[in-house]
Amino acid sequence: MFQDNEIGAITAGGHFGHPPSSKYDKLISLAKEVPPATTVVVHPCDETSLRGASAAAELGIIVPILVGPVAKITAVAKQHRIDIARYELVDAPHSEAAAAKAVELIRESKGELLMKGSLHTDELMRAVTSGTTGLRTARRISHVFIMDVPTHSETLFITDAAINIFPDLEAKRDIVQIAIDLFTHGGLGTPRVAILSAVETVTPKIPSTIDAAALCKMAERGQITGGILDGPLAFDNAISPQAAQIKGIKSAVAGHAQILVVPDLEAGNMLAKNLTFLSKADAAGIVLGARVPIVLTSRADSVRARMASCAVAVLEADARRKTSPLPAA
């Protein structure tokens, strides 16, 4: 159970001494305005993952179903004084079994979200992507980081830094559209989307610049909708108005990007981790393209980042309710 000062720290955007952040506050506030999402939490067998699920439930944005070894989950809750008495527990002997059981519950329409606990990402994603018992749809599966960088005024969405290793142009089109849809479903308006490369000019020697130009043309022709695209853009002139001005780049996106589309997973992963460890950014994370949104966080993430991930996923789930209501179990 949280003490009053702990809840205050989280709802104010901070967590145990972390600087407050109005960026995550807005997402959490929006999530509190919609019905809570039933969330299957996979193997929450450490303090951070269990406390993250409990905190989101206490704020009324999720209703958790905890899947994993019940004795271990109960012991963690007792050790760290986390009240889980109100939550449904489903027993599974180990992390792999927990992932399989959680996916089964989603397939049975018993949950609207899937949330990673203290298991490895590949264990969870193996169960999600199984061709026979998983949660694949016709859509491509893609990951979006929602970054709260203290030194930057905008919330930054970075994609894809976790799922698609070397996406081709078709995959990048899907990655861009998924990120735009997530941004708009979160009630954040029309996003400015920067297609990143090492330079801001199109050159055949750097294939990602060709893809960037093609993606912008696809947006012009209606193959990508809902966002304002520009690219190729280097990172500096995507987020810094001064850098864009020096380079003479004039567009609605340059210097003011809200979604950063990276060339490949390696670039995205390094960018997100640089922001996390050098700029003290928080990194919420969500996977889309499966039957339900997946809250895919790192075991090292703060409770606040986990709650922001939950908030974004809840907003996405609510948008899906309005177009495709969850069938009765």
CATH topology annotation of the largest domain: Rossmann fold
Number of domains: 2
Number of E-state strands: 11
Strand coverage percent: 15-25%
Largest sheet: 11 strands, mixed
Can you walk through the features of this model?
- The protein has 329 residues and is of the alpha/beta class.
- The protein folds into 2 domains: 1-137 and 290-329, Rossmann fold (3-Layer(aba) Sandwich); 140-284, Isopropylmalate Dehydrogenase (3-Layer(aba) Sandwich).
- Helix content is 43%, strand content 17%.
- The chain is built from 12 helices and 11 strands.
- It has helices at residues 4-11, 22-32, 47-58, 70-79, 95-107, 121-129, 169-185, 207-220, 235-239, 241-247, 265-278, 303-323; strands spanning 37-42, 62-68, 88-91, 113-116, 142-148, 156-159, 192-196, 228-233, 259-261, 282-288, 294-295.
- The chain has an 11-stranded mixed beta sheet, sandwiched between helices.
- Strand 1, helix 3 and strand 2 form a beta-alpha-beta unit.
- Helix 2 crosses helix 12 (303-323) and helix 5 (95-107) runs parallel beside helix 6.
- The longest helix is centred in the C-terminal third of the chain and has 21 residues, at 303-323.
